[in-house]
Structures are given as structure tokens and as C-alpha cells.
């Protein structure tokens, strides 16, 4: 059974009260009894003195029978037993018994004590008369010598009723004090327990969500402080809760009004929050509470979320749900071990992009035939033209070549960007491809007096890739290295590291400024327009390179210092 604070305080009080009462009763009974016996001893001493005066001459004359007769009459009158004992312990007279039948009294405690010359007393059980007795012995002296003793005895049964009466009245008083104390203890315990009970009831209500609960106490002690603090605390928490819930409403409003789908997934993979747009995308009003794979039932979405859950990284990708394309970005929230997913509808953007791509491809296709025709005619009339007009023909030829290059690069780029582009994958010897690329560009390097070198490890493993595309990649990189180098050399190194093959194209050319490094892979981005144009550049070469590298699951990095040269590092998995 649960013990309340009231019963605890009350039982504590009761234990103290009962212990104190019992102690007081025991001590007072003993004190009263010993005090009473002391008074009796004094009375007996006075009585013994008067008996001593009467019998002293008779004892001197050894009139023992007379003494016995005398005390047999005075003893009952005084309601006291009188015994006359000689110094050797022989009983010569007794008010209640025949002295001749009584044994020697020398060893009695009161006689031993009186043998020192002073009165001796003893309270004990008398075997002779089978009762508790109080004995007092007074020595009878002649000069310094003890002739005998007067011993007076009192039956305690006579004083016990008196003591009992006294004890009963003391017990009665104690009982009244006890009752008053118990009633007081009950009140005190209740007064002490009530504020605690009130506080406990209030805190229970508070825990159940009643933030308006307050405790008012009449006490002017620490309990009152506690109640005031409790009231202050509940007030503060109520305000805080109010603020929090209004913030929550605000946040909810913002999330609901989002044009993007918002989905919050907890660490167990359950959707714990989603907005209207997310429900609309999922085509299900009830996705909250479901697991993420059950909520959207889209393999690409599941893969992204799974990836974020497992690797605790942010991930994004494109997913298609019901013929619409969404940009799905899943971010990991480390503090709560949760994932927030945003789904942006990019269908329109994708359509525009596709229209643009189709347009570029169509235009490129349409331009290719007339450009090839122009190029052919220009080459035909080139031989017949006079020197005066040769310059015009050269300009037409150069620009036609540039246009043909742009058209070809655009078509290649569109092909590479096409979703699901198929590579003709086979085991490729990169060293051979690099050597072929260098061979194809040798004449260009020779024209500019640039030295070309290949440094390859003895054993470079074959890589899995499309040989045509990889050759295209190295031709672009080496061509750039020659184009943007005025003097010096171009070096291609091939190494194997871990499970990758690393190819580096290094030149001693003009280099690329730091601020342009991140942009050179963009389409049509050129650092120096006039130089690019002069060298027949299209601004699409590095874009093509990047796409090819990505299609091979590799990576490309650049290091460059203006005036010193550039280094393009291609890493391809073996
Ligand atoms: P382009 O056809 O103009 O060379 P790319 O896409 O191949 O176009 O290169 C983009 C730009 O990057 C170039 O215009 C040039 O400014 C810079 N670039 C590329 N390769 C090098 C290099 N090896 N050294 C210096 N600049 C380079």
C-alpha cells in the first residue's frame, strides 16, 4: 500500500509521543516509589528511636521476655513488626513471631549495614512471611559498643494500593496528554501534508496538459515559496508552449503553402510529416505514418532515401512519378537522425530543355549538309581563284571549318547528353589510344615546334570503356594543350593507382586563371575569346571531355598556373 506523506508524518509523531509518554511514566513511577519508600524509612527511623528508648534499659537487664511481651502489644498498635536482635544476630523478641523459632539474623542486609553504627535499611521479599517488606535496623549502643539492634519492618502490601492509586492517576493524566498530543499530531501532520498534496495534485493536472493550474497556500513558509515558484514555472511554460505552438502553426502554414512537396522521414523510415503537395505527388492523402517506400512507391525515390539513410549524406536526383519529372533533394538532419525530402516539379523545365536540345540537334543536322556543300565548293574553287581573291577564300574556308566543327561538336554533345546514351563498352588499352591521339596531332605540334612525350607505367591495366569516345577525349585534351602552348612541351603520363588508371595531360602553355578554372567545362565558355577563335576553338571541347569522363564513371581535375601551364588529370576505373 502506498504510504501518504500524512501517514508518514503522523506515524513519526505518534512514535515520538508514545516513546516519550512511556519513558515519563516508567521514570515517574520509579521516582515516586523510591521517594515514598524514603519517607517510610524516615518514619520508621523515628519510630525505632522511640522503641529504642523504651527497651534500652530492659535490654541492659536482659529482660528479653518483657521486651517480647511489650513489643507484641505495641507492634500491632503501630501496625509495624518490631524485632529485637542481639549483636551476634540472635533474635530475642519479635512482635509477630516466637523469637526462639527464628533463625540468626546477623546476615540480613539491614543488620550488616547497621553493624557500622548507622541505621540500615533493606527492601526485599521476606521468606518468613512470604511478602515484600521494608526493613529498618537501628543499632543499640552502649558507649562505642553495639549491644543489639531494633529492627522495624513494614509490609509493602499496605503501601502498594496507595502507590497503585497514584500510578493510576498519573497514567490517567498521561492518557489525557497522549490524546491531546495525538489530536495535535493529526492536525499538524495534516497541515504539513496538505500543501504537498495540493502541489502534487496540481503537478499531476499540469502533466496532463492543464497549463492554467495554480496552487494558492495560506502558509507563510517555504511551502508558500514552493507554490509561488510552481505557479511562476507553470506560467512560463504556458507562455513557452503558446509561442511554440504558434511557431509550429506558422511553420505548418509555410510548409503547406510550399509549391514543392515536403516529406520528413524519421530514423525508422516512417513518414512523419508531409505537405499537401507531397500528398498530391504521391496520389495518396494518407502517406503520413507509412514507410517511405510504401508512401511513394517509386524505385528512384527509394534509392535516394536509402542512400541518405545509409551513408548519412545529402543526395539529389531526378525521379519520374506519373509522367511528371521531379527534382528530389534529400538532406540528412544529424541532430534528429531524420531526412527531409523536397520534390520540385521540373517537368516544364525539362520540356523546355528538351525543346532547346531538339532545336540544337535539328539546326545542327540542317546546317551540316549545306556546310559540307559549301566546304566542298570552296575547296573546288580554291585552286582556280586568282591571288587577289585568295585571301577571301581563305577567310570563307576558315569560318566554314569553324562552323563545321561547332556543328559536329554540338551533335556529339547532344548525343552524349541524351539520357540512356549507350557506350560501346570493351576492354581498352589506354596507352594505345593516347599514342593514336598523339599521332593524329603530331603535325600540329611540329608546326608550333612543340615536343610531345608519353610516359606510361610498364603495366597499365585495360579499362572498360568506349574506345572511340576515349580517343575523342584525349584528342580534345591534347589538342587544347597544343593550342594553348606557344613553346615547350606537352606530356601525357599514364599510371595505375589502386583500382584506377590515371592519365595526366600536362603542358607548359599559357595556363588558366584561377577564377576561370571552375567554368571551363561549361558549354561555349572560353577564357580568351580572340585566341580561341584564332585557333579554331568552339568552346565545346572540354564540355565533351567532361561528359565522356562521366559516362565512364570517372572524374577530371585541373591544376593550372597562368604563364606556367596546365595539367588535366583524368581518373578512370579499371
Ligand atoms: P576551345 O574549343 O575554345 O578550346 P574548350 O572547351 O576545349 O574550348 O576549352 C575551353 C576553354 O578552356 C578554352 O577556350 C581555353 O581558354 C581554356 N583551355 C582549355 N584547355 C587549356 C589549356 N590546356 N591551357 C590553357 N587554357 C585551356
Q: Beta-sheet strand percentage? A: 15-25%
Portion in helices: 40-55%
User: Would you tell me the structural class of the helices and strands?
Assistant: alpha+beta
Tell me, briefly, the overall form: rod-shaped
Q: Look at the structure and give the mean pLDDT.
A: 90
Intertermini distance: 76 Å
What small molecules accompany the polymer chains?
Answer: adenosine-5'-diphosphate
Counted by DSSP, the helix tally is 15
Structure, explained:
With 574 residues, the chain is of the alpha+beta class. It is 55% helix and 21% strand. The protein is built from 15 helices and 17 strands. The strands form four sheets. A five-stranded antiparallel β-sheet has the order 2-1-5-4-3. Strand 3 and strand 4 form a beta hairpin. It is rod-shaped. The mean pLDDT is 90. Bound molecules: adenosine-5'-diphosphate (ADP). The site of adenosine-5'-diphosphate has 22 residues, from helix 12 and helix 15.
Task: Give me some keywords for this one.
574 residues; five-stranded antiparallel beta sheet; 15 helices; rod-shaped; binds adenosine-5'-diphosphate
What would a concise description of this structure say?
This protein is α+β, with helices and mostly antiparallel strands and 574 residues long. It has helices at residues 5-60, 64-78, 109-114, 156-207, 222-257, 276-282, 292-296, 299-311, 347-382, 387-417, 430-447, 467-483, 514-517, 529-534, 541-551, and strands at residues 81-86, 91-94, 120-126, 131-142, 145-155, 261-265, 271-274, 315-321, 324-333, 338-345, 426-428, 451-456, 463-465, 489-497, 500-507, 555-561, 565-573. A hairpin with a 4-residue loop joins strand 3 (120-126) and strand 4 (131-142).
Amino acid at each position: 500500500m502506498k504510504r501518504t506523506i500524512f501517514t508518514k508524518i503522523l506515524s513519526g509523531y505518534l512514535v515520538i509521543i508514545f516513546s516519550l509518554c512511556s519513558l515519563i511514566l516508567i521514570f515517574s513511577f520509579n521516582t515516586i516509589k523510591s521517594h515514598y519508600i524514603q519517607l517510610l524509612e524516615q518514619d520508621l527511623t523515628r519510630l525505632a528511636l522511640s522503641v529504642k528508648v523504651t527497651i534500652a534499659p530492659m535490654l541492659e537487664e536482659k529482660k528479653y521476655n518483657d521486651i517480647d511481651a511489650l513489643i507484641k502489644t505495641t507492634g500491632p498498635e503501630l501496625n509495624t513488626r518490631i524485632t529485637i536482635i542481639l549483636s551476634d544476630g540472635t533474635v530475642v523478641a519479635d512482635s509477630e513471631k516466637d523469637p526462639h523459632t527464628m533463625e540468626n539474623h546477623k546476615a540480613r542486609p539491614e543488620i550488616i549495614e547497621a553493624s557500622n553504627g548507622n541505621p540500615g535499611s533493606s527492601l526485599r521479599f521476606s521468606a518468613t512471611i512470604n511478602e515484600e517488606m521494608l526493613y529498618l535496623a537501628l543499632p543499640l549502643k552502649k558507649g562505642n559498643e553495639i549491644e543489639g539492634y531494633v529492627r522495624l519492618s513494614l509490609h509493602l502490601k499496605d503501601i502498594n494500593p496507595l502507590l497503585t492509586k497514584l500510578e493510576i492517576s498519573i497514567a490517567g493524566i498521561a492518557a489525557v496528554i497522549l490524546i491531546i498530543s495525538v489530536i495535535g499530531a493529526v492536525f499538524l501532520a495534516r497541515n504539513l501534508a496538505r500543501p504537498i498534496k495540493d502541489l502534487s495534485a496540481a503537478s499531476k493536472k499540469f502533466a496532463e496538459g492543464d497549463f492554467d493550474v495554480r496552487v494558492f497556500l495560506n502558509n507563510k513558509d517555504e511551502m508558500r515559496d514552493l507554490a509561488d515558484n510552481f505557479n511562476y514555472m507553470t506560467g512560463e511554460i504556458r507562455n513557452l508552449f503558446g509561442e511554440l505552438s504558434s511557431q509550429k502553426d506558422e511553420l505548418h502554414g509555410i510548409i503547406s503553402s510550399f509549391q514543392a512537396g515536403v516529406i520528413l522521414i524519421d530514423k525508422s523510415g516512417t513518414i512523419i510529416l508531409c505537405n499537401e503537395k507531397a500528398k498530391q505527388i504521391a496520389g495518396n492523402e494518407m502517406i503520413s505514418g507509412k514507410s517511405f517506400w510504401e508512401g511513394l512507391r517509386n524505385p528512384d525515390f527509394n534509392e535516394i532515401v536509402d542512400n541518405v539513410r545509409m551513408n548519412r549524406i545529402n543526395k539529389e536526383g531526378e525521379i519520374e512519378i506519373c509522367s511528371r519529372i521531379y527534382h528530389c533533394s534529400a538532406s540528412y538532419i544529424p541532430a534528429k537522425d531524420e531526412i527531409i525530402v523536397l520534390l520540385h516539379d521540373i517537368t516544364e523545365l525539362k520540356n523546355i530543355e528538351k525543346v532547346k536540345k531538339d532545336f540544337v540537334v535539328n539546326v545542327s543536322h540542317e546546317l551540316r549538309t549545306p556546310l559540307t556543300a559549301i566546304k566542298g565548293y570552296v575547296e573546288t574553287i580554291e585552286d582556280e581563284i586568282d591571288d587577289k581573291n585568295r585571301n577571301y577564300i581563305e577567310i570563307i574556308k576558315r569560318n566554314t571549318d569553324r562552323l563545321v566543327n561547332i556543328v559536329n561538336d554540338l551533335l556529339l554533345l547532344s548525343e552524349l547528353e541524351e539520357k540512356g546514351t549507350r557506350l560501346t563498352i570493351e576492354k581498352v588499352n589506354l596507352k594505345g589510344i593516347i599514342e593514336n591521339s598523339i599521332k593524329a596531332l603530331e603535325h600540329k605540334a611540329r608546326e608550333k615546334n612543340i615536343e610531345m612525350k608519353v610516359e606510361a607505367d610498364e603495366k597499365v591495366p585495360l579499362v572498360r570503356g568506349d574506345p572511340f569516345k576515349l580517343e575523342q577525349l584525349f584528342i580534345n585534351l591534347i589538342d587544347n594543350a597544343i593550342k594553348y602552348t606557344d613553346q615547350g612541351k606537352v606530356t601525357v603520363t599514364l599510371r595505375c593507382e589502386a583500382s584506377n588508371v590515371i592519365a595526366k595531360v600536362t603542358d607548359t602553355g599559357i595556363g588558366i586563371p584561377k577564377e576561370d578554372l571552375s567554368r571551363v567545362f561549361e558549354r561555349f565558355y572560353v577564357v580568351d575569346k580572340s585566341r580561341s577563335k584564332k585557333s579554331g576553338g568552339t568552346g565545346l571541347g572540354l564540355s565533351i571531355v567532361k561528359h565522356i569522363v562521366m559516362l565512364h564513371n570517372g572524374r577530371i581535375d585541373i591544376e593550372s598556373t597562368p604563364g606556367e601551364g596546365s595539367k588535366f588529370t583524368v581518373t578512370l576505373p579499371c
